[in-house]
Amino acid sequence: MVQALVDGLAGRKGIELHHVNLPLSRDPGDIGRIRPGKLWVLLRACLKARRFARANDFDTLYYVPAPGKRSALYRDWIALGMCRPAFRRLVLHWHATGLGGWIPQKMSPPARRLTHHVLDGADLAIVLGPALRTDAETFAARRTAVVPNGIADPCPDWIPRNHASGAPLQIAFLGLGNEAKGLFDTAGAVLTANRLSCAPPDQPVFVLAAAGGFSDQADETRFRRLTDAHPSMLRHLGFVEGAAKRRLLDGSDCLCLPTRYPHEGQPLVLLEAMAHDLPVVSTRWRGIPDTVHPETSRLVEPGDVAALVQALRELQSAPPPPGAARAFFKEHYTLGKHLDLLAEALTALS
């Protein structure tokens, strides 16, 4: 989403934008790790931002704050401590959630005071949905704007897909492979739904195609054992992007993301699924109920695998009307709409 802002926001409503890149992580496995080299990269980026602001009379600092993770919070202490004094105004865009509730539980009183010192009193807090205002309120933002995410249409030439008679319901899972994101709940629901359907093991009614990396080796080993034991029902595709991701979504009948990830905000994969006209099975968690189409989605309580099974069986027996989810995406979540709302929120500061 930051890339979308950099590529598309400059020039809208007269906004002038300069991006200072902060390439802290070498790869997905490096995200969140404390490494000495990251400090040098961070310090250089902060000095560059300060010099540019003073030389070019930029008055507003736009920043995406940390979720409840120590290493990311330490980054914010340094970045905002160095950069905020060089700008007249601060905009915090809360893509992740939960920091306000995390720091009282996990951080010492001095650390809590330092966190409030660098984050309190932003001139504008941007949140992704009405249910995600808590962090903005915790850190006493002077103004809050709701700006849902938006994406470039991943399938502009979309045409309705007819589900082949007798074919299994293909369930897509895209995300980090761990318990919190819901991979194992999804796999368990698929296995249970097949057992309740009394289908032969080699002719399942439900199949899971999971894509993405794993949190750690233990999660990968656990899921590999499941796919080895149930190869006709469960498979893992690794990382998918571009054409491979489109083939996966085009060939699927629904997206399942029963997340209870503590830093979840508004998962972009839900928008991608609706763009492909897929019904969504997810959880009543964070900003998800405000995001998905109310008529083509099924929401369950986090961790309720029995309800997840029921939701999948309902979709299999009574799929939503073709085109409904995609129409909802085009009405609410296009990239152009997102950028227009973002520009409107930012220019209201003037």
Q: How many separate domains make up the residues?
A: 2
Output the CATH topology of the largest domain. Answer: Rossmann fold
Run of helices and strands: HHEHEHHEHEEHEHEHEHEHEHHH
Would you tell me the structural class of the helices and strands? alpha/beta
What is the CATH class of the largest domain?
Alpha Beta
Task: Give a verbal description of the structure.
The chain is of the alpha/beta class and 350 residues long. The chain folds into two domains: 2-150 and 334-347, Rossmann fold; 169-332, Glycogen Phosphorylase B (Rossmann fold, 3-Layer(aba) Sandwich). The chain has 14 helices and ten strands. It has a six-stranded parallel β-sheet with strand order 7-6-5-8-9-10, sandwiched between helices. Helix 7 links the parallel strand 5 (169-174) and strand 6 (206-211). The radius of gyration is 22 Å and the shape is globular. The model has no long low-confidence stretch (mean pLDDT 94).
